[in-house]
Amino acid sequence: MTQTTPVSGPHTHAPGSVAWNMGWVTLALLPATAFGVYLFGWPALNLLLITILAAVLFEALCLRIAGRPVSPFLMDGSAIVTGLLLALTLPPWAPWWIGVLGAAFAIIVGKHVFGGLGQNLFNPAMLARVALLVSFPLEMTTWITPSPLFSEGAPGFLEGLAITFGLAAIPDAVTGATVLGEAQTGFSRDLGLSETLPGVYAPLQQALGFVPSSLGEGSALLLLAGGLLLMAKRIITWDVPVAMLGTLVILSTVFMLIDPERYAGPGLHLFSGAAMLVAFFIITDPVTSPSTVAGRLLFGAGCGLLIYVIRTWGGYPEGAAFAVILMNALTPLIDHYLRPRAYGRTRRGKPLPMKNTEAPAPAQEKRP
Amino acid sequence: MFLFKRKRPVFQGGVHPDDRKQATSGLPIECLPMPARLYLPVQQHIGAAARPVVKAGDTVLKGQMIARGDGAVSAAVHAPTSGRILGVEPHPAPHPSGLPVETIVIEPDGEDRWLEDPDPEHALNLEPEAIARRVAEAGVVGMGGATFPAAIKLNLGSRHHIDTLIINGSECEPYLTCDDRLMRERTDEVVDGIRIMRHALGARRALVVVEDNKPEALAALQARLYEMDTIEAMAVPTRYPMGSEKHMIKAVTGREIPAGKLGADIGVIVHNVGTAYAVHRAVRMQRPLISRIVTVGGGAVQRPANLEVLLGTRVEDLLAHCGGTRQPPARLLMGGPMMGQVMPHAQVPVIKGSNGIIALTEEEINIGETMPCIRCGRCVAACPCGLMPLEMAARIRKEDMDGAVDYGLMDCVACGSCSYVCPSHIPLVQFFHHAKGVLGARREQQRRQEEIKRLAQQRRERQEAEARAKAEAAERRKAEREAAKRKAEEAKAARAAKAATAKETPKTPAADQAEA
After folding, report:
1. Which of A66, A112, A158, B259 could pair covalently with A344 via S-S, beta carbons 3.0-4.6 A apart?
2. What average pLDDT does the segment B441-451 reach?
3. Measured between beta carbons, which residues in chain B are less than 8 angstroms from residue A355?
4. Could you say which DSSP state residue B238 is in?
5. B232-255 pLDDT, tens per residue?
C-alpha cells in the first residue's frame, strides 16, 4: 500500500457531521411541530409542507446558480431546518404565498447572498419572519384559536386547502389574539394586567400550548423537551438558552415586583410567544451566534434583554425576531473582543508574568 | 499518595477520543525475533544528525557506538546487535515524505554479542553531570515520541531551580499501550530510572502521572513506592492531550508555562516513562538505547501486540510478526492516531521515538466530506491552548498568515483536538501546518534578504571608503606636487618643505595599502 498525499493528523474523528446535527434538530422539533399541526389542522400542515418544500427548492436553485455541488449541500439538511423553523414562527393559517415568499427571503437573501452555509450574518428564518411581518402585517398577525384536527368546527382537508390557497376567507369567529397581544392592547387602553389577563391567560393552558399562537411556538413544554434533548446530545450548548431565559426571568421578576399591574411575570414571558423556540432552536444556531462560551452568554443575555424590552415597551407585542436579528449583527463584534485566554498568556495576549524571577534567562533551546 | 487527595486543576478544553486500548493493554511485551537487516538512520532525534563512525565492511558488537552525536543538541546511535555493517547509505526515513536519509545498515551475525559486560553502577552516588553525560553517551532521547535528547533536559538542574520532576505515563493517544505495559512489567526499572533522574535534577519531588484508564499501571507503581517517598504516583482524568508537556504541567501542578518559556523556567521538567526506563538502562546498567517497546495495533492488524523491538527493525517485520494485515490499511501510522504520522510504506525502520505502528481501517479513520465551517465553536471549546481554530483557519484560507498569528497560531501545539471534533470535518491541523510552513519560509526569505542587504551595505561602504581613499590620495599627491613646485620656486623655504614631505612620504603608501 502506498499513501501518496501526506495527511496530517488526527487520523480518527469524533462521530457526527453537519447533516447529523441538522437531523437531530429536526427530530427535536418534531413533537412541537406535530402538536402545532394537530392544534391548527390542515391549513397548518399545508403551510408547513409548502414552506419546507420552497426552502429546499430555493436552496437547490441557489446552489445551482453558485455552481456548487447540489446534492451534498442539500443533504446537509440545513435548508429543511430553515424552512421548518420559519414555518413554525408563521401564523398557522397564513396563505401559501407567505410561506413561499418567506422561504425565498430566508434562503436567498438570508443565506446565499452572504455566501451560503456558514457565511450568513443573520438567522435566515428570523430575517424572513421580520421581512414578512413588516411587509404583510395583516397576514402575519391573524392568529387562530386552537381548533384541533378532526374536532368539531375544524376545517376538513378541502377546506384547509381552500384557506391555504386563499379561496376561502378565514372566518372571524376562529381568529383570536395572543396573550402578549392582549397584554399590549390592554396596556394601550390603560388597563392593568389584572383586567386584561383573566380569560386569556391561564398558566397551564399557556405552557401546554392550547392558545392562539404561531404554528409551532405554542407548546412551550414540548419545545423545552426538544431543547433539552439537543443539549443532552451535545448538539447545542447550555450557555445561550440559559443566558436568554435567565435574563428574561430576572428582568420580568424584578419589574413585576415593582409594578405587578403593569409588568407581566416570568411565567407569562417564558411560556408565551416565541421565547422557548428562540432560546433553544433559533439563537443556538451555530452560524449566527458567537463561538466562545463568554460570547454566547453575552449574546443570549442580550437576546433576553431585547425581547423583554420590545415586548414591554416596544411597538410590537412580540419582539423575539427583532431581538435575534439585532444580536446577530453584534456577533462578529462579540467574537472579536471576547476571545478565550490562551494557555500561558494573559487575557490581553501577553505572556504570563514569571513567578520566580531569580532563575537566569536560559539559553535559547528548542524543546518539543 | 493520600497526601494529595485534593482536587487538582485540569487544563481547559481537550477531547475524549475512544481509547481503543483494550486490544493490546492485556498483552505482555513480546520480544521480536532478530530481523535479517537493521536500518539505523543517523537522525532519530530533534537536533543535528549524528555522524557515522563506521563504514561498510566493519564488524560491530552489540552496544557499540556507530554514529556520534554532533553538536550541542544531538544523540549518538549504537549497534542494536553484533554484526557487519553493510553500508552507510540513503534509505527511506520513517516520515510522511518517505525521503531517504543517511542510514547505517547492519546485517546481524546472530551471536548478539555485547561490546562489554559492565557491573551495575551505584547510580545515586554519581554527580548530576556524570549522570547526564552517561545518558548522552547512551543516546537516550525523549521516548514519548518527541525525541529531544534527554541529557540536555537532565542538565537543566544546574541552571534552573527544578522543584518537580513529572514522569509522563499518561499515554493519552488511543491504541497505544506500550507505556502502560512498561509501567506494569518493568516497574522496578522505571522507578529506578525516576530516582536517578530526580537525583540528577535535584528536584524535591517526582510525580508519576498516569491517566485513570490504567489502574493496573498505577497500582504497580504505588506498590513500589514508600509512604513518605520523594516519588509519588498519581492518577489524572483521562483526557486528550494530557500527555502534552504544557497541559500535563497545568493538570498536575496548576502552573502554566508563560508563552515563549520552558517548563524549567517554572521549576518543572517532564520526562516520559519510557525515558525513565532508558535512563535506568543507561546509567545503572550502562547499556545504550538500542531497543524500545512498540504497540502494533489498529483494526487492519491481524494480531495486535506489544513488541520489544531493536531500533532499525523495519515496520514490515513487525507487521509480519503480528500475522500481517487483515486488509490493506487505509493509513499506516507511526505513533498514535491523534498526532502520529502517516508512513509512505512499511519498509521504514522503527526509530527511538516510534511508540506505535498503527494500521487503521477506513471505518476507524471516519473521514467525512469536508463541509464549510458553520462556526459552531466546538473547536474553540476543544482547544486545550485557548485558541480559536476556526478564526485561524479562516485567515489561513485567505493567506492572511499574520492574522492567524494574531489569533495565536504560534501557541498551537497541533494536538488535533479541533479537527477531531469538527462536524464539518475540516482538516484544521493541516491548515496550521501549512501556515507554519509558509511563515517559516517567509522568515527564511526575510533572513536572506537581510543578509543580502547587509552584504550590499558592506560593499557600498567598502566602495565608498575606497573612493574616499583614492580622492584623499589624489589630494595628497596634488599637495605634494604643489609642494615640489614651491620647493623649486622658493629656495628659501625649500628646507622647511623638505622636512614636511619627509614626514608624509613614508605614511602615504602604507595608508593607501590599508585602505585598499
Report:
1. B259
2. 94
3. 255, 266
4. -
5. 999 999 999 999 999 999 999 989
Torsion of CA B229, B193, B75, B441, to 10 degrees: -50
- Distance, in Å, from the CA atom of A323 to the CA atom of B235, rounded to the nearest integer, reads 48
**What does the block give as the cell for A171?**
372566518
pLDDT, one tens digit per residue, over B311-359 is 999 999 999 999 999 999 999 999 999 999 999 999 999 999 999 999 9
Model confidence, pTM:
0.85
Q: Do B384 and A343 touch (CB under 8 A)?
A: yes
For residue B322, which amino acid is it? C
Torsion angle, CA of B357/B361/B365/B371, rounded to 10 degrees? 140
Tell me yes or no: is domain B2-321 CATH 3.40.50.1000: no
Q: Do A351 and B146 touch (CB under 8 A)?
A: no
Nearest-angstrom CA–CA distance, B175 and B178:
9
C-alpha A344: how far from chain center: 38
Mean pLDDT of the B112-135 span: 87
* Nine-digit cell string for A168: 376561502
Q: Where are the domains of chain B?
A: 2-321, 378-434, 439-515
Residue type for position B477: R
Q: Is CATH 1.10.287 what the domain over A18-337 is classified as, yes or no? A: no
Integer CA distances (angstroms), A360 to A283, A357, B245, B266, in order: 51, 8, 22, 11
Residue of chain A minimizing CA distance to B414: A9
> Residue type for A12, please?
T
Residue B294 pLDDT > 90: yes
d(CA A145, CA A153): 11
How far apart are alpha carbons B473 and B492 in whole angstroms? 28
Query: Is the CB of B391 less than 8 angstroms away from the CB of A335?
Result: yes
Collect all residues of chain B within an 8 Å Cβ-Cβ radius of residue A339.
388, 407
Residues on chain B touching A283 (C-beta within 8 angstroms): none
Interface test with B, best of A12, A62, A82 (most B CBs within 10 A): A12
Cβ partners under 8 Å of residue A245, min gap 6: A270, A275, A279, A304
CB-based contact A11 B250, cutoff 8 Å: no
Rounded to a whole number of angstroms, the distance from the CA of B436 to the nearest CA of chain A is 13
Task: Give DSSP secondary structure letters for A99-110.
Answer: HHHHHHIIIIIT
Contacts of B457 (CB under 8 A, 6+ apart): none
Cβ contact B159–A353 (<8 Å): no
pLDDT value at residue B10: 83
Report how far residue B464's alpha carbon sits from residue B447's, in angstroms, rounded to the nearest whole number.
Answer: 25
Q: Where are the domains of chain A?
A: 18-337
Check B328 against A14: CB less than 8 A apart: no
Q: What is the mean pLDDT of each run of 10 residues along chain A (368 residues)?
A: 63 89 94 91 92 95 90 88 94 92 95 92 94 91 82 80 82 76 77 76 77 85 93 92 96 93 87 90 94 94 95 86 95 93 90 64 41
Across the interface, of A3, A17, A358, the residue whose CB is closest to B331 is: A3
Q: Do A358 and B161 touch (CB under 8 A)?
A: yes
User: By the 8 A CB rule, do B142 and B148 touch?
Assistant: yes
Measured between beta carbons, which residues in chain B are less than 8 angstroms from residue A119? 372
Q: Which residue of A has its CA nearest to B96?
A: A6
Backbone angles phi, psi at B314, to 5 degrees: -80, 150
In whole angstroms, how far apart are CA A242 and each of A249, B72, B375? 10, 56, 20
Scan for cell 537487516, then name that residue.
B37
